[in-house]
Amino acid sequence: MQFGNIVVQGENLLLISGLLISYVMFYYGIKVLKIERNIMDLILNSFINGVLIWKFSYVVLHPNSVLQNPMTILYFNGGYVGVSMAIVFITVYTWLYVKKQNIPVVSYTRAMVPVYFGYFSTFAWIRVMENSQNYFIILQAIAAICFFIVASRVKAQKTLLQLLIWFHLIQFELAMYKKYFVNTGIVSKEVWLYGSLVIVFICISYWLERREREEVLEERNKGRGRKANQLALGVMVVSIAVSSIFNSQHEVGKVKSKSVLSTSLDSGKIGTNKGEIAPDFELRSITGDNIQLSDLRGKTVILNFWATWCPPCRAEMPEMQKFYENNKNNNVEILAVNLTNSERGPDAVNDFVKNKGVTFKVVLDEQGEIGNLYGAITIPTSYIIDKNGVIRDKYIGPMSYETMDRMISGVQ
């Protein structure tokens, strides 16, 4: 994300925001919600550690990359797998602490749910700032704000748990329809995450309701929590069915839909903004061949501007190579434009490419003209270009495998 002349990597912005919002929510819980300090200490510690686990889970998931280039820790995180690891840690840590300190579950729920929505709102609006044209992300952020406001005014445990269930059902629905809107052929990790959270919160809600009924022995309350949870589960099942029908109805015209979407984005204007046709160019590759951008029409292209002296570029290269190896047979191409005018010479580029085992196309911008044409002031800078040569997205900073996967899935 770029603020004037300052560029902050999206993942690092999430990390910094996560740590800051932890302290904001801590004082919000104490001053506004009037929650006991020991409960807010538990939430603060669990969420901070969860954010750190999410960020540094990359070390566990990609130890070889980290050993080869420790700088990757600064730029990447564990993605959805890291999120899952953080959720598991927070759950186990909270459970043990609550039992040890004899904290009432009702009091913890009263504090945790608004804080959770506060976290989600912060992260969602950061995503909106990164991609303000994605209406699904905007809807996710608006929903999070609304649920945060409601949860801050609710005290009943059952209602708060139901808010969690309905919130994640909404996020699940948005993720499902986002998947069909961009015509991806696989269920996204986002869909799996929200679907799993819905099931988890239904189970927690049911368990707490059952325990409460057994303790209070109020016959008149029997079945209410179960009916609410069954209704939520039923809505989820119906949502899956409706989304599946929606998908099957459009499967026959899938290729046509993609064409219409690309055509609507293609204004016919040549430029470097989203929806414009990427300016064509021809450069010499490190193998001595001349490569023209327009020759790659029919493939989804990651056009990447980089240099060997650039630390984030060096961290990004292994991720790009791995992504290329796994997707080169899926009409995906990577064209890496080296800003050779800023290098010691072409030999430095050849040595770097050889040492890193790069097999995708690398071309030399010896005069810096193409870099200037595409406004590659900060590197690495990458453009996502669809099969019709239309720019669909732009990313400033190093891209992880998951980031590339998400951006390419949004185009294909």
Automatic annotation (TrEMBL):
GO terms for molecular function: antioxidant activity; oxidoreductase activity. Pfam families: AhpC-TSA. The chain crosses the membrane at residues 12-30, 42-61, 73-96, 108-128, 134-151, 163-180, 192-208, 228-246. Gene3D superfamilies: Glutaredoxin. Keywords: Disulfide bond, Membrane, Transmembrane, Transmembrane helix. It comes from the Bacteria. PROSITE patterns: THIOREDOXIN_1, THIOREDOXIN_2. Residues 272-412 form the Thioredoxin domain. PANTHER family: THIOL:DISULFIDE INTERCHANGE PROTEIN DSBE, THIOREDOXIN-LIKE PROTEIN HI_1115. This is Cytochrome C biogenesis protein. It comes from Geobacillus thermopakistaniensis (strain MAS1). The lineage of its organism: Bacteria, Bacillati, Bacillota, Bacilli, Bacillales.
